[in-house]
Protein backbone atom coordinates (compact mmCIF):
# COMPACT_ATOMS: atom_id res chain seq x y z
CA UNK A 1 0.00 0.00 0.00
CA UNK A 2 1.18 3.50 -0.75
CA UNK A 3 -0.35 5.00 2.41
CA UNK A 4 -0.64 4.24 6.10
CA UNK A 5 -3.99 2.57 6.77
CA UNK A 6 -3.98 3.80 10.35
CA UNK A 7 -7.20 5.87 10.12
CA UNK A 8 -9.21 2.78 9.21
CA UNK A 9 -8.01 0.88 12.25
CA UNK A 10 -8.25 3.49 14.98
CA UNK A 11 -10.84 2.70 17.67
CA UNK A 12 -14.01 4.78 17.89
CA UNK A 13 -16.05 5.59 20.99
CA UNK A 14 -19.40 7.31 21.46
CA UNK A 15 -21.36 7.06 24.71
CA UNK A 16 -21.19 3.35 25.57
CA UNK A 17 -20.34 2.34 22.01
CA UNK A 18 -16.79 1.12 21.55
CA UNK A 19 -15.66 0.07 18.09
CA UNK A 20 -12.32 -1.61 17.45
CA UNK A 21 -11.93 0.21 14.12
CA UNK A 22 -13.67 2.67 11.78
CA UNK A 23 -14.96 0.12 9.25
CA UNK A 24 -18.64 -0.85 9.14
CA UNK A 25 -20.48 -3.41 7.08
CA UNK A 26 -23.06 -1.45 5.12
CA UNK A 27 -26.71 -2.56 5.26
CA UNK A 28 -27.57 -4.74 2.27
CA UNK A 29 -30.93 -6.40 1.64
CA UNK A 30 -30.41 -10.13 1.15
CA UNK A 31 -33.89 -11.78 1.07
CA UNK A 32 -32.88 -14.87 3.02
CA UNK A 33 -35.29 -14.71 5.98
CA UNK A 34 -38.43 -16.77 5.16
CA UNK A 35 -41.53 -15.47 6.95
CA UNK A 36 -39.41 -12.61 8.24
CA UNK A 37 -37.31 -14.79 10.55
CA UNK A 38 -33.48 -14.67 10.37
CA UNK A 39 -32.16 -18.22 10.65
CA UNK A 40 -28.81 -19.80 11.36
CA UNK A 41 -27.53 -18.93 7.88
CA UNK A 42 -28.11 -15.24 8.66
CA UNK A 43 -26.35 -15.66 12.02
CA UNK A 44 -23.34 -17.22 10.29
CA UNK A 45 -23.31 -14.56 7.56
CA UNK A 46 -22.92 -11.70 10.02
CA UNK A 47 -20.60 -13.62 12.32
CA UNK A 48 -18.10 -14.23 9.49
CA UNK A 49 -17.68 -10.49 8.89
CA UNK A 50 -17.25 -9.81 12.61
CA UNK A 51 -14.70 -12.62 12.90
CA UNK A 52 -12.77 -11.02 10.05
CA UNK A 53 -12.38 -7.78 11.99
CA UNK A 54 -15.23 -5.52 10.88
CA UNK A 55 -15.82 -2.99 13.66
CA UNK A 56 -19.55 -2.37 13.22
CA UNK A 57 -22.14 -4.52 11.50
CA UNK A 58 -25.23 -2.68 10.24
CA UNK A 59 -27.84 -5.28 9.43
CA UNK A 60 -29.84 -5.44 6.27
CA UNK A 61 -33.04 -3.44 6.42
CA UNK A 62 -35.40 -5.09 8.91
CA UNK A 63 -39.01 -3.98 8.88
CA UNK A 64 -40.86 -2.40 11.78
CA UNK A 65 -44.24 -3.61 12.99
CA UNK A 66 -46.57 -1.85 10.58
CA UNK A 67 -48.82 -3.61 8.08
CA UNK A 68 -47.25 -1.85 5.09
CA UNK A 69 -43.61 -1.74 6.20
CA UNK A 70 -42.39 -4.57 3.98
CA UNK A 71 -41.93 -4.41 0.24
CA UNK A 72 -39.93 -7.51 -0.69
CA UNK A 73 -40.07 -11.28 -0.20
CA UNK A 74 -38.07 -12.93 2.57
CA UNK A 75 -36.76 -9.79 4.23
CA UNK A 76 -36.41 -9.99 8.01
CA UNK A 77 -38.87 -8.48 10.47
CA UNK A 78 -38.00 -6.69 13.69
CA UNK A 79 -41.07 -7.71 15.65
CA UNK A 80 -42.63 -10.94 16.86
CA UNK A 81 -41.09 -13.50 19.18
CA UNK A 82 -39.63 -15.73 16.48
CA UNK A 83 -37.93 -12.96 14.49
CA UNK A 84 -36.57 -11.25 17.60
CA UNK A 85 -35.21 -14.57 18.88
CA UNK A 86 -33.39 -14.94 15.55
CA UNK A 87 -31.91 -11.46 15.91
CA UNK A 88 -30.78 -12.25 19.45
CA UNK A 89 -28.68 -15.09 18.03
CA UNK A 90 -27.16 -12.68 15.50
CA UNK A 91 -26.30 -10.16 18.22
CA UNK A 92 -24.67 -12.80 20.41
CA UNK A 93 -22.63 -14.21 17.50
CA UNK A 94 -21.31 -10.78 16.48
CA UNK A 95 -20.42 -9.89 20.07
CA UNK A 96 -18.64 -13.20 20.57
CA UNK A 97 -16.52 -12.34 17.53
CA UNK A 98 -15.58 -8.95 18.98
CA UNK A 99 -17.81 -6.80 16.81
CA UNK A 100 -20.64 -4.35 17.45
CA UNK A 101 -23.99 -4.39 15.67
CA UNK A 102 -26.90 -2.05 14.87
CA UNK A 103 -30.19 -3.12 13.24
CA UNK A 104 -31.35 -0.97 10.37
CA UNK A 105 -35.01 -0.16 11.07
CA UNK A 106 -37.00 0.19 7.88
CA UNK A 107 -40.36 1.03 6.33
CA UNK A 108 -40.50 0.94 2.52
CA UNK A 109 -43.48 3.26 2.04
CA UNK A 110 -44.88 3.50 -1.49
CA UNK A 111 -42.24 1.08 -2.78
CA UNK A 112 -44.61 -1.60 -1.49
CA UNK A 113 -47.11 -3.07 -3.92
CA UNK A 114 -50.16 -5.17 -3.13
CA UNK A 115 -49.38 -8.88 -3.26
CA UNK A 116 -46.28 -8.66 -1.05
CA UNK A 117 -46.08 -10.52 2.27
CA UNK A 118 -47.08 -10.62 5.06
CA UNK A 119 -50.61 -9.51 4.03
CA UNK A 120 -50.89 -9.27 0.23
CA UNK A 121 -54.04 -7.12 0.46
CA UNK A 122 -52.23 -4.20 2.14
CA UNK A 123 -51.22 -1.37 -0.23
CA UNK A 124 -48.20 0.88 0.05
CA UNK A 125 -48.41 3.78 2.51
CA UNK A 126 -46.75 7.13 1.82
CA UNK A 127 -47.15 10.85 2.47
CA UNK A 128 -49.20 11.52 -0.66
CA UNK A 129 -49.86 8.17 -2.33
CA UNK A 130 -46.94 8.67 -4.72
CA UNK A 131 -44.09 6.30 -5.52
CA UNK A 132 -42.41 9.05 -7.54
CA UNK A 133 -43.49 12.44 -8.86
CA UNK A 134 -46.53 11.80 -11.06
CA UNK A 135 -46.53 8.05 -10.26
CA UNK A 136 -49.30 7.12 -7.82
CA UNK A 137 -49.18 3.97 -5.72
CA UNK A 138 -51.04 2.96 -2.60
CA UNK A 139 -52.63 5.31 -0.08
CA UNK A 140 -51.79 8.67 1.41
CA UNK A 141 -51.21 8.37 5.13
CA UNK A 142 -53.59 9.89 7.65
CA UNK A 143 -52.24 11.50 10.80
CA UNK A 144 -53.29 8.36 12.65
CA UNK A 145 -51.21 6.30 10.22
CA UNK A 146 -48.26 8.60 10.88
CA UNK A 147 -48.56 8.08 14.62
CA UNK A 148 -48.79 4.31 14.14
CA UNK A 149 -45.52 4.26 12.21
CA UNK A 150 -43.77 6.52 14.72
CA UNK A 151 -44.79 4.10 17.47
CA UNK A 152 -43.57 1.13 15.42
CA UNK A 153 -40.09 2.66 15.14
CA UNK A 154 -40.08 3.33 18.87
CA UNK A 155 -41.13 -0.23 19.65
CA UNK A 156 -38.39 -1.61 17.40
CA UNK A 157 -35.69 0.56 18.97
CA UNK A 158 -36.79 -0.45 22.45
CA UNK A 159 -36.61 -4.12 21.42
CA UNK A 160 -33.17 -3.57 19.87
CA UNK A 161 -31.82 -2.23 23.14
CA UNK A 162 -33.39 -5.11 25.09
CA UNK A 163 -31.80 -7.66 22.73
CA UNK A 164 -28.34 -6.20 23.30
CA UNK A 165 -27.80 -4.34 20.03
CA UNK A 166 -25.19 -1.60 20.41
CA UNK A 167 -27.36 1.08 18.80
CA UNK A 168 -29.89 1.49 16.00
CA UNK A 169 -29.87 2.88 12.49
CA UNK A 170 -33.03 4.52 11.18
CA UNK A 171 -33.35 4.12 7.41
CA UNK A 172 -34.22 7.56 6.04
CA UNK A 173 -32.67 7.18 2.58
CA UNK A 174 -33.07 5.91 -0.98
CA UNK A 175 -36.69 6.75 -1.64
CA UNK A 176 -38.30 4.66 1.11
CA UNK A 177 -40.97 5.97 3.48
CA UNK A 178 -39.00 8.48 5.54
CA UNK A 179 -37.28 9.78 2.43
CA UNK A 180 -40.65 10.06 0.69
CA UNK A 181 -41.65 12.56 3.39
CA UNK A 182 -38.35 14.42 3.02
CA UNK A 183 -38.48 14.60 -0.79
CA UNK A 184 -40.68 17.37 -2.17
CA UNK A 185 -41.36 15.25 -5.25
CA UNK A 186 -43.27 12.63 -3.25
CA UNK A 187 -44.53 14.80 -0.37
CA UNK A 188 -47.41 16.90 -1.65
CA UNK A 189 -49.20 17.21 1.68
CA UNK A 190 -50.82 20.49 2.73
CA UNK A 191 -50.75 19.87 6.48
CA UNK A 192 -47.89 20.26 9.00
CA UNK A 193 -46.07 17.28 7.44
CA UNK A 194 -45.73 18.86 3.99
CA UNK A 195 -44.67 22.05 2.27
CA UNK A 196 -41.53 23.65 3.69
CA UNK A 197 -38.32 21.72 4.32
CA UNK A 198 -38.97 22.00 8.05
CA UNK A 199 -42.46 20.55 7.65
CA UNK A 200 -41.24 17.71 5.44
CA UNK A 201 -38.68 16.91 8.14
CA UNK A 202 -41.32 16.72 10.86
CA UNK A 203 -42.15 13.00 10.44
CA UNK A 204 -38.50 11.95 10.62
CA UNK A 205 -37.84 14.28 13.54
CA UNK A 206 -40.78 12.79 15.45
CA UNK A 207 -39.49 9.27 14.77
CA UNK A 208 -36.06 10.19 16.12
CA UNK A 209 -37.63 11.86 19.16
CA UNK A 210 -39.72 8.75 19.85
CA UNK A 211 -36.72 6.46 19.50
CA UNK A 212 -34.68 8.68 21.81
CA UNK A 213 -37.48 8.65 24.36
CA UNK A 214 -37.58 4.83 24.26
CA UNK A 215 -33.84 4.13 24.46
CA UNK A 216 -32.62 6.87 26.79
CA UNK A 217 -29.96 9.54 26.42
CA UNK A 218 -26.81 7.45 25.90
CA UNK A 219 -27.93 4.82 23.40
CA UNK A 220 -26.55 5.56 19.92
CA UNK A 221 -29.01 6.55 17.20
CA UNK A 222 -27.72 6.68 13.63
CA UNK A 223 -29.75 8.11 10.75
CA UNK A 224 -29.06 7.11 7.18
CA UNK A 225 -30.03 9.73 4.61
CA UNK A 226 -29.27 10.36 0.96
CA UNK A 227 -29.77 12.86 -1.80
CA UNK A 228 -30.32 10.18 -4.48
CA UNK A 229 -33.42 8.01 -4.68
CA UNK A 230 -34.06 4.69 -6.36
CA UNK A 231 -36.78 6.62 -8.22
CA UNK A 232 -34.33 9.33 -9.37
CA UNK A 233 -30.57 9.02 -8.99
CA UNK A 234 -30.13 12.75 -9.60
CA UNK A 235 -32.69 13.89 -7.01
CA UNK A 236 -31.67 16.40 -4.35
CA UNK A 237 -33.08 17.10 -0.91
CA UNK A 238 -30.85 20.14 -0.56
CA UNK A 239 -28.81 22.17 -3.05
CA UNK A 240 -26.39 24.08 -0.85
CA UNK A 241 -24.55 23.88 2.48
CA UNK A 242 -27.05 26.39 3.86
CA UNK A 243 -29.98 24.14 2.99
CA UNK A 244 -28.12 21.15 4.38
CA UNK A 245 -27.76 22.99 7.68
CA UNK A 246 -31.51 23.64 7.76
CA UNK A 247 -32.03 19.94 7.12
CA UNK A 248 -29.58 18.66 9.74
CA UNK A 249 -30.16 21.01 12.68
CA UNK A 250 -33.64 19.70 13.66
CA UNK A 251 -32.37 16.12 13.43
CA UNK A 252 -29.47 16.87 15.78
CA UNK A 253 -31.88 18.50 18.21
CA UNK A 254 -34.18 15.45 17.99
CA UNK A 255 -31.37 13.14 19.06
CA UNK A 256 -29.36 11.81 16.12
CA UNK A 257 -25.84 10.84 17.28
CA UNK A 258 -24.31 9.66 13.99
CA UNK A 259 -25.23 10.59 10.42
CA UNK A 260 -24.77 7.92 7.75
CA UNK A 261 -24.61 9.98 4.57
CA UNK A 262 -25.29 7.61 1.68
CA UNK A 263 -23.69 8.42 -1.66
CA UNK A 264 -23.07 6.27 -4.71
CA UNK A 265 -19.35 7.20 -4.86
CA UNK A 266 -17.65 8.40 -1.69
CA UNK A 267 -15.01 10.41 -3.59
CA UNK A 268 -17.46 12.76 -5.32
CA UNK A 269 -17.82 16.31 -3.92
CA UNK A 270 -21.33 17.26 -2.81
CA UNK A 271 -21.33 21.00 -3.58
CA UNK A 272 -19.34 23.18 -5.96
CA UNK A 273 -16.29 24.92 -4.55
CA UNK A 274 -15.31 22.18 -2.10
CA UNK A 275 -13.99 18.63 -2.29
CA UNK A 276 -16.02 17.56 0.75
CA UNK A 277 -18.48 14.74 0.18
CA UNK A 278 -21.92 14.60 1.82
CA UNK A 279 -20.58 13.03 5.02
CA UNK A 280 -17.83 15.63 5.15
CA UNK A 281 -20.25 18.51 4.88
CA UNK A 282 -22.52 16.88 7.45
CA UNK A 283 -19.69 16.60 9.96
CA UNK A 284 -18.55 20.16 9.28
CA UNK A 285 -22.05 21.54 9.85
CA UNK A 286 -23.13 19.47 12.84
CA UNK A 287 -19.91 18.47 14.59
CA UNK A 288 -21.47 15.02 14.93
CA UNK A 289 -19.70 11.81 13.91
CA UNK A 290 -20.46 10.85 10.33
CA UNK A 291 -20.21 7.70 8.25
CA UNK A 292 -19.49 7.78 4.53
CA UNK A 293 -20.23 5.02 2.03
CA UNK A 294 -20.19 4.47 -1.71
CA UNK A 295 -18.28 1.96 -3.86
CA UNK A 296 -15.38 1.48 -1.43
CA UNK A 297 -12.84 -0.81 -3.06
CA UNK A 298 -14.75 -0.87 -6.35
CA UNK A 299 -14.38 1.04 -9.60
CA UNK A 300 -18.10 0.97 -10.43
CA UNK A 301 -20.74 2.60 -8.29
CA UNK A 302 -23.51 0.73 -6.47
CA UNK A 303 -26.20 1.24 -9.07
CA UNK A 304 -24.31 0.58 -12.28
CA UNK A 305 -22.14 -2.11 -10.75
CA UNK A 306 -24.90 -4.10 -9.13
CA UNK A 307 -27.93 -3.61 -11.34
CA UNK A 308 -27.16 -1.98 -14.66
CA UNK A 309 -23.70 -3.22 -15.60
CA UNK A 310 -23.32 -5.95 -18.17
CA UNK A 311 -20.03 -6.95 -16.59
CA UNK A 312 -20.22 -10.06 -14.43
CA UNK A 313 -17.56 -8.83 -12.03
CA UNK A 314 -16.90 -5.35 -10.72
CA UNK A 315 -13.27 -4.36 -10.78
CA UNK A 316 -11.38 -3.54 -7.59
CA UNK A 317 -9.83 -0.14 -7.03
CA UNK A 318 -7.36 1.28 -4.54
CA UNK A 319 -8.38 2.89 -1.27
CA UNK A 320 -5.72 5.58 -1.11
CA UNK A 321 -8.26 8.38 -1.46
CA UNK A 322 -10.40 6.91 1.31
CA UNK A 323 -7.41 6.84 3.65
CA UNK A 324 -6.47 10.40 2.69
CA UNK A 325 -9.96 11.71 3.40
CA UNK A 326 -10.05 9.95 6.77
CA UNK A 327 -6.58 11.24 7.58
CA UNK A 328 -7.94 14.73 6.92
CA UNK A 329 -10.80 14.10 9.33
CA UNK A 330 -13.48 14.52 6.67
CA UNK A 331 -15.61 11.76 8.22
CA UNK A 332 -15.24 9.34 11.11
CA UNK A 333 -16.47 5.99 9.83
CA UNK A 334 -16.69 4.21 6.49
CA UNK A 335 -19.26 1.63 5.44
CA UNK A 336 -18.26 -1.10 3.01
CA UNK A 337 -20.93 -3.00 1.10
CA UNK A 338 -20.35 -5.28 -1.87
CA UNK A 339 -16.65 -5.78 -1.20
CA UNK A 340 -17.58 -7.39 2.14
CA UNK A 341 -20.58 -9.19 0.68
CA UNK A 342 -18.31 -10.88 -1.84
CA UNK A 343 -15.34 -11.47 0.45
CA UNK A 344 -15.83 -11.74 4.23
CA UNK A 345 -12.05 -11.49 4.64
CA UNK A 346 -11.83 -8.19 2.73
CA UNK A 347 -10.74 -6.10 5.70
CA UNK A 348 -8.09 -8.60 6.82
CA UNK A 349 -6.63 -8.71 3.32
CA UNK A 350 -6.58 -4.92 3.08
CA UNK A 351 -4.91 -4.62 6.47
CA UNK A 352 -2.23 -7.17 5.56
CA UNK A 353 -1.60 -5.68 2.11
CA UNK A 354 -2.97 -8.74 0.30
CA UNK A 355 -5.08 -6.79 -2.18
CA UNK A 356 -4.16 -9.23 -4.92
CA UNK A 357 -6.12 -11.86 -2.97
CA UNK A 358 -9.31 -9.80 -2.65
CA UNK A 359 -12.16 -11.38 -4.57
CA UNK A 360 -13.72 -9.13 -7.21
CA UNK A 361 -17.42 -8.56 -6.69
CA UNK A 362 -19.60 -10.70 -8.95
CA UNK A 363 -23.35 -10.25 -9.25
CA UNK A 364 -23.89 -13.98 -8.86
CA UNK A 365 -22.83 -13.60 -5.21
CA UNK A 366 -26.17 -11.88 -4.56
CA UNK A 367 -27.85 -15.24 -5.08
CA UNK A 368 -26.28 -16.83 -2.00
CA UNK A 369 -25.70 -16.04 1.65
CA UNK A 370 -22.10 -16.59 2.63
UniProtKB/TrEMBL annotation:
Chain ranges of the NADH:flavin oxidoreductase/NADH oxidase N-terminal domain: 8-355
CDD domains reported for this sequence: OYE_like_5_FMN
GO molecular function: FMN binding; oxidoreductase activity
Pfam families: Oxidored_FMN
GO cellular component annotations of the record: cytosol
Record's protein name: NADH:flavin oxidoreductase/NADH oxidase
Natural source organism: Marinobacter nauticus (strain ATCC 700491 / DSM 11845 / VT8) (Marinobacter aquaeolei)
Amino acid sequence: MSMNLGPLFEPFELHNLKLRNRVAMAPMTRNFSPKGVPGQDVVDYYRRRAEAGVGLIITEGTVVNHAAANGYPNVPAFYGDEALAGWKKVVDAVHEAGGAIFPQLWHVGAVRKEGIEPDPSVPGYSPSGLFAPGKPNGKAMTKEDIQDVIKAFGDAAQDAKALGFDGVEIHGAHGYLLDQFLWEGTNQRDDEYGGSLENRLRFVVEIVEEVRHRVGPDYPIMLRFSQWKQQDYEAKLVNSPEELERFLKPLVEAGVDIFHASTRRFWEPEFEGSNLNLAGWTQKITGKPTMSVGSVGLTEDFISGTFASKKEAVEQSGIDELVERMNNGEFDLIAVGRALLQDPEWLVKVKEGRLNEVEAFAKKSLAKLY
